[in-house]
Amino acid sequence: MRADITLATPIRRTARVLQLQGMFDVPLEEKLTNTWSAVLPVEERKWNVGLLVGPSGSGKSTIARELWPGRLVRDHPWGDRALVDDFRPGWASRTSSAC
Question: Is residue 62 in some structural domain?
């Protein structure tokens, strides 16, 4: 699977931003844009549950939103229970032999 992701955010012209602009003579754009492409081997094997790992701010949520729109879990309705407590009844025992 190939992911081509572009993020853009407007630059807020705060007093500090304008001060740094003047100090370093850097022109300000209206927005900051970053684009990258990645080839992710998610289709190479059959899978049901996936996990994106990496340090904070590395783009895990951005990649997940791009590849699986509307499926990113933000709120955890199970509260203080373990994730497996929210699986459908019988699901874990049916798939445990595949592990």
Answer: yes
Per-residue pLDDT of the chain (99 residues; tens, 9 = 90+): 888 999 898 888 899 989 988 999 988 888 989 898 888 888 888 877 778 888 988 888 888 888 888 887 767 666 667 767 777 777 766 555 554
- Output the CA–CA distances (angstroms, integers) from residue 60 to 10, 12, 26, 53, 95, in the order listed: 22, 25, 31, 7, 26
33 is a domain residue? yes
Asked if the structure places residue 85 within a domain, the reply is no
Structural domain span for residue 45: 2-75
* Total-model pTM: 0.51
